[in-house]
């Protein structure tokens, strides 16, 4: 049976369902096609379950250290089954919430795999969606005026390393572990790899990270990356950078044994399990792109313009499937811009330098805007201010005084170029920095804002004052 819609969205992840809600608010008859569960990777295989487990690891770490706060406890133990059960409960609660939002918005949800058809008896242009229904019923044909592709991404594989989901895992496999290993080798020192390294170390697992380039967290400011590496080392995490894994040396008997080339010398690594975390790639296979004029860029992601239109002007794409910043909040806002463009509401294009990013390890890290290296590459004259959490009363009370806030501003205009943080609760503090960036604030304006005492946020104000050497406590 053929059904007509104003908009059909391929993919019900964060970007897809947020776009659907906005479309419904604007009066579009909307449908989502989702092959798995509403909420997508973020809700079921990424952001939410991993943060739930990170929270359990945090509680375990804090309980072990309770004596330093004058609280005597018995020796704590990890019940990993309960950790997993709590994670599942949180995911299920949020999943029900998303389902309710679809009903509230009168958004039709088709459970199945959608493919884009070319011009046919249904439509003179490409864009009809054939849905192979998960329940085995006859295919549904959806005839939309517009399409948004929001099919997300999947973990990248490492050539020569077969993932079996148990001994060699992706981050998605690791979320389903029934027991904790005694040791693990994490391949990849990006955001996902570092979060897993921190979490597992807090659970008591012996962790080794190997990274191909000469530093971890290559997208972060170098000072932040160096501080993260130092503090992870204090937790007992071993990190090898500039390490090229040699897949042909991998042995899986009684755990993992593999070699890596580090500065021309082979070094052997052994662990119970391996987690491969080298990034993610767009889900563009078998969704019918060959039936359209849509173009794929050199990184394997869909090419779009500033309003997320593909070469087929009525077909849009958002989120991980277009590459760029692969973050849930980015996909959501891309979806909103796409829908508002479809409805002729003339949205502003997203300025990606205004988008905050977060790392939920221990310590946390967060940033918005340019790194110092990027400012140098652009030939900008800049000045910086930095303030340590060691000078902050709330951080000392909290028992977490490692880390700092760093602010980079334009020497000529005084506008803020970037703000970078590492330390306690910085993922909750970064929004002040994000707002400052959006409003083109200067360090003086942040420093002139009276931050309540005692709070961690005082470090932001002090770092802003430090740009011009006016800090009080540093």
Protein described:
- The chain is of the alpha/beta class and 474 residues long.
- The protein has three domains: 2-154 and 281-352, FAD/NAD(P)-binding domain (3-Layer(bba) Sandwich); 157-278, FAD/NAD(P)-binding domain; 363-466, FAD/NAD-linked reductase, C-terminal dimerisation domain (Enolase-like, domain 1, 2-Layer Sandwich).
- Helix content is 31%, strand content 25%.
- It contains 13 helices and 21 strands.
- It has helices at residues 14-25, 40-45, 47-64, 80-104, 171-174, 191-202, 222-234, 328-342, 372-377, 393-398, 426-438, 443-448, 458-466, and strands at 2-10, 30-34, 108-116, 129-133, 140-149, 153-155, 168-169, 183-187, 206-210, 238-240, 243-251, 256-262, 265-271, 273-276, 280-282, 315-317, 357-359, 364-369, 382-388, 404-410, 416-423.
- The strands form five sheets. The chain has a five-stranded mixed beta barrel. The chain has a five-stranded parallel β-sheet with strand order 7-14-8-9-10. The protein has a five-stranded antiparallel β-sheet with strand order 17-18-21-20-19, with helices on both faces.
- The longest helix is centred in the first third of the chain and has 25 residues, at 80-104.
- The protein is globular and about 70 Å long.
- 44% of the residues are buried.
- The mean pLDDT is 96.
The CATH superfamily label of the largest domain reads: FAD/NAD(P)-binding domain
Distance between the termini: 70 Å
Strand order of the largest sheet: 1-2-3-4-5
Low-confidence stretches: none
Number of strands: 21
Biggest sheet architecture: 5 strands, mixed, barrel
Silhouette: globular
**CATH architecture group name of the largest domain:** 3-Layer(bba) Sandwich
């Amino acid at each position: 049976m053929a059904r007509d819609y104003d908009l059909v969205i391929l993919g019900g992840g964060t970007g897809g369902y947020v776009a659907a809600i906005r479309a419904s608010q604007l009066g579009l008859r909307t449908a989502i096609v989702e092959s798995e569960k509403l909420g997508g990777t973020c809700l079921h295989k990424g952001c939410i379950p991993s943060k739930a487990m990170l929270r359990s690891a945090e509680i375990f770490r804090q309980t072990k250290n309770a004596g330093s706060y004058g609280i005597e406890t018995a020796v704590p133990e990890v019940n990993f089954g309960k950790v997993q059960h709590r994670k599942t409960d949180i995911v299920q609660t949020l999943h029900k919430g998303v389902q309710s939002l679809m009903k509230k918005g009168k958004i039709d949800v088709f459970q199945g795999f959608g493919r884009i058809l070319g011009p046919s008896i249904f439509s003179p242009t490409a864009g009809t969606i054939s849905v192979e229904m998960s329940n085995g019923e006859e295919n549904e044909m959806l005839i939309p005026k517009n399409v948004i592709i929001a099919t997300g991404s999947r973990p990248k594989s490492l050539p020569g390393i077969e993932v079996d989901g148990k001994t060699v895992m992706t981050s998605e496999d690791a979320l389903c572990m029934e027991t904790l290993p005694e040791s693990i080798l994490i391949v990849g020192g990006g955001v996902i790899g570092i979060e897993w390294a921190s979490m597992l170390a807090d659970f008591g697992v012996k962790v080794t990270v190997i990274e191909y380039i000469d530093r971890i967290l290559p997208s972060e400011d170098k000072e932040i990356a160096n501080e993260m590496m130092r503090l992870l080392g204090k937790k007992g995490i071993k990190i090898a950078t500039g390490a090229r894994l040699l897949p042909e040396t991998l042995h899986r008997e009684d755990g993992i044994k593999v070699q890596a080339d580090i500065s021309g010398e082979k070094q052997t690594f052994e662990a119970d399990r391996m987690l491969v975390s080298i990034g993610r790639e767009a889900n563009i296979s078998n969704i019918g792109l060959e039936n359209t004029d849509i173009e794929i860029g050199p990184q394997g992601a869909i090419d779009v313009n500033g309003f997320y239109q593909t070469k087929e002007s009525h077909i849009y794409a958002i989120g991980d499937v277009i590459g760029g910043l692969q973050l849930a909040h980015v996909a959501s806002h891309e979806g909103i811009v796409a829908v508002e463009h479809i409805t002729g509401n003339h949205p502003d294009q997203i300025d990606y330098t205004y988008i905050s990013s977060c790392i939920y390890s221990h310590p946390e890290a967060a940033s918005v805007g340019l790194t110092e290296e990027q400012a140098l590459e652009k030939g900008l004259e800049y000045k910086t201010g930095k303030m340590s959490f060691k000078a902050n009363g709330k951080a000392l009370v909290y028992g977490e005084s490692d880390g700092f806030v760093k602010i980079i501003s334009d020497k000529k205009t005084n506008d803020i170029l970037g703000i970078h943080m590492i330390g306690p609760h910085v993922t909750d503090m970064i929004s002040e920095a994000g707002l400052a960036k959006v409003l083109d604030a200067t360090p003086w304006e942040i420093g002139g804002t009276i931050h309540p005492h005692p709070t961690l946020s005082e470090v932001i104000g002090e770092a802003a004052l430090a740009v011009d050497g006016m800090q009080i406590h540093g």
